[in-house]
Amino acid sequence: MDNHEVTIRSVDFSTGVISPSYRVLRRTLREIAPIFWDQEAAKSILQAEGDRLIYEVHVTEIPESIEHLPFCTTIIYPGCVGEEYHMTKGHFHSQRQRAEIYLGLSGKGALLIQNEEGEVRMIEMEKGTIGYVPPGWAHRTVNTGEEPFIFFAVYPGDAGHDYKTIEEQGFARRLFKDQHGPRLVESPNWRK
Ligand SMILES: [Fe+2]
Questions:
Q1: Which of 28, 92, 141, 186 has the fewest C-beta atoms under 10 angstroms from its C-beta?
Q2: How far is the CA of 99 from the centre of ligand 1 (A)?
């Protein structure tokens, strides 16, 4: 029996830290700037702040193979680039017919899902919200609050991550902050 089958793990809902920890992936603005609509704002932030941590993912050593259910936590830090909220890169699963479950642990955010035709749906997330990503839908998460938005995710081990399609096409809708709160608007550059 492998160790990962018997290890007892826990998650701190207020920080998103999984114990025992394995690896933390950090995504900074310098790395993911092209996902944001306002490139001038991204440049200004990089000039003024050097760089900025947008989100981090705490992953476990559970193997990404068909018999397993890998899980992770994601912490998206609050803030905007221009008027657009901090968000994750977003991806389809390489094997399109693989679903995923999200559970909100802390903070406030949104799960955006998009199918191959560019239909976008938004699930508002907070502590206790279960966000279901059906098979075939790309997914991106957004922090729409003032605190870190933290959630837990679990997915079939053979799902795989296709980031490239979203890097090239983006999402058909973007989540901007206006005076009344989050506003989901059509992305003018979608698929260009
Ligand atoms: Fe996923």
A1: 186
A2: 8
Which residues have C-beta under 5 Å from ligand 1, the single-atom ion? 100
Count helices and strands (H / E) in the chain.
Answer: 3, 17
Give pTM, 2 decimals.
0.95
Please indicate, yes or no, if residue 56 is contained in any of the structural domains: yes
Measured in Å, how far apart are the chain's first and last C-alpha atoms?
50
Residue 124 · residue 175 · CB < 8 Å: no
Query: Residue 174 falls within a domain, yes or no?
Result: yes
pLDDT tens for the chain, 192 residues long, are: 466 667 888 999 999 999 988 899 999 999 999 999 999 999 999 999 999 999 999 999 899 999 999 999 999 999 999 999 999 999 999 999 999 999 999 999 999 999 999 999 999 999 999 999 999 999 999 999 999 999 999 999 999 999 999 999 999 999 999 999 999 999 977 875
How remote is the CA of residue 47 from the centroid of ligand 1, in Å? 32
Residue range of the domain that includes 92: 3-186
- Cα 162 to ligand 1 centroid, rounded to whole Å: 9
Rounded distance from Cα 164 to ligand 1 centre (Å)? 13
Report CA(152)–ligand 1 centroid distance (Å). 11
Residue 192 lies in a domain: no
